[in-house]
Amino acid sequence: MDNPPPPAITYTAAGLATVVLILLSRRLFGRKLKLPPGPKPWPIIGNFNLIGPLPHRSLHELAKKYGPIMQIKFGSIPVVVGSSSEVAEAILKTHDISLADRPKIAAGKYTTYNYSDITWSQYGPYWSHLRKFCNMEIFSPKRLDFYQHVRVEELHSLLKSLYKTSGTPFKTREKFSDLSLSVISRLVLGRNYTLESEKGKGVYTPHEFKKILDELFVLNGVLEIGDWIPWLSYFDLQGNIKKMKAVAKKVDRFIEHELEEHDARRNGVKNYVAKDMMDILLQLSDDPSLDVEFGRTGVKALTLDLIAGGTESTAVTAEWALAELLKKPEIFEKATEELDRVIGRERWVEEKDIVDLPYVTAIMKETMRLHNVSPLLVPRVAREDVQISGYDIPKGTVVMVNVWTIGRDPKIWDNPNEFCPERFLGEEIEVEGQNFKLMPFGAGKRICVGYPLGLKIIQSSVANLLHGFNWKLPKGMKKEDLDMEEIFALSTPKKNPLVAVAEPRLPPHLYSV
Ligand code: HEM
């Protein structure tokens, strides 16, 4: 057998490459790079040994040692993590455009049509066109007003179905995600995908469809080794790529079926008037005057973004809010006192009432402070060299903001680990990305595109859940037994789903609306 070539050759080549890189970067910056502090990386794995199943918590611990801007390595890729509101502002505002790309991770490739959606596409004309379209056609104030009746109808149908559970324990998130999925599927596809009566019209039952979405969310949040140690991606050691391809196939079957139905409806009809967002997207993809090619793949990817982005985040936030309140029943009392005083017991809360409910609004903010659905936001990539707090961040570096740490920063929040809505009363801290202490939707160019809708659903649903029901834990369970552990996925839900009991507190005729 031939002897393998002496490793020295490889080392020499690698050494040479490193020297060239260092020289090049010195030339670019005209001096030696000053990288943010951080733990010494191991060969191949970098600092993966320091990252547990809840990466935001591991990075939180590391930030205590290395400070509000640190650099670690995920495999061979440098990752800069900002963990203070000042560094977050530098990343998401001062250097927003320079840091607006996304990493090309496997989930984006396999589950979102090769990075054709908004979330994983690179900053540039295609992405900006999709966002502009969403802002003008889907989430504009006019469009949101136009579709208010859909949100109201679906919320009332949730309240009605909770009334039927009266006194029986149920898994809250399942019910809440029905609300967001029904609103989103009616807006995007023109049909309520959660109704059993719709069975047979789509390719999956509502139950199957929700299972597919759950899988998609988990796979979009996993720490896939091949993303960070690229030569390992071929081996698919965790089996994630196989699962991503399988779920993508199922999703495509679903969207393709919807597209065919929409095509059939439009075909041959002169001056067809769009009935839902998929219709609007199809019209856009036919438009020859667009300078960006959108195509059928773009329609599919954006449809998926809207369904996936809109479903879990609102349901997860509502579940966390209830879990926190079940631990602190005195907050329920204050909230219902406000609701009875402002709304009374003879009607439901309407979207326009939210401005008059400061305490309920404070509950929302406090929930989002402690339970951000994306504790590290969505990672960004430097499109050019930048400097933050005197440290160099070379082009190609992955950049993350740990909003989980910022939400618990004792320099910003008194008793940061305590759930205390009162801290927001009389304070002008909004959640729409202007304040770098509280960023449940992110901030800057990449801020959540669906936040105007997400905020409306979450505010009116939580307000009405508190207005319409007394919430209790199942018989025999004490508030001390309620765990607050999370899992890391695309959203960050409770590890053990919250099971609760809802007892109606308004006159019975209201639940039959
Ligand atoms: C409570 C509700 C919601 C929360 C808390 C939430 C949170 C977030 C966060 C934290 C990001 C990452 C922002 C960043 O990287 O800086 C994001 C991005 C995104 N969200 Fe949401 N979201 C919600 C609702 C929605 C809804 C209703 C939709 C669509 C129907 C949506 C679609 C998206 C999309 C497409 C992106 C990617 C934006 C981009 O990369 O340009 N989200 N969301």
UniProtKB/TrEMBL annotation:
Q: Name one GO molecular function term.
A: heme binding
UniProt cross-references to PROSITE patterns, sorted A to Z: CYTOCHROME_P450 (PS00086)
Cofactors required: heme
**Keyword entries, A-Z:** Heme, Iron, Membrane, Metal-binding, Monooxygenase, Oxidoreductase, Transmembrane, Transmembrane helix
InterPro entries in the record, alphabetically?
Cyt_P450 (IPR001128), Cyt_P450_CS (IPR017972), Cyt_P450_E_grp-I (IPR002401), Cyt_P450_sf (IPR036396)
Q: Does the keyword Glycoprotein apply?
A: no
Gene3D superfamilies from the UniProt entry: Cytochrome P450
Among PANTHER family, the record links this protein to:
CYTOCHROME P450 98A9, OS09G0441700 PROTEIN
Q: Which family does the record assign?
A: Belongs to the cytochrome P450 family.
State the protein's name.
Cytochrome P450 71A1-like
